[in-house]
Automatic annotation (TrEMBL):
Domain of life from the UniProt record: Bacteria
GO cellular component terms, semicolon-separated: membrane
Source species of the chain: Nitratireductor mangrovi
InterPro entries: MscS_channel_C_sf (IPR011066)
Protein name in the entry: Uncharacterized protein
């Protein structure tokens, strides 16, 4: 390890450090779950209509 005066030599690219942490945690049997995402829907009717419209467009063979 370099002396404290050479602190710039300690730099490790962030992604390399993150992958190494992930590998070591995985070896120890520690998993990191994906963050939970909540979606609040104010009106399901608009979404249901958009899905139905999309399905009808996809069912039309001339619409490719």
């Amino acid at each position: 390890m370099p002396p404290i005066a050479e602190i710039s030599a300690w730099r490790v690219p962030g992604s390399e450090l993150a992958f190494e942490v992930y590998r070591e945690l995985a070896k120890a049997g520690i998993g990191i779950p994906f963050p939970q995402r909540d979606i609040a829907l104010r009106s399901i009717e608009d979404i249901a209509k958009a899905v139905a419209d999309g399905r009808s467009r996809n069912a039309d063979p001339g619409n490719e």
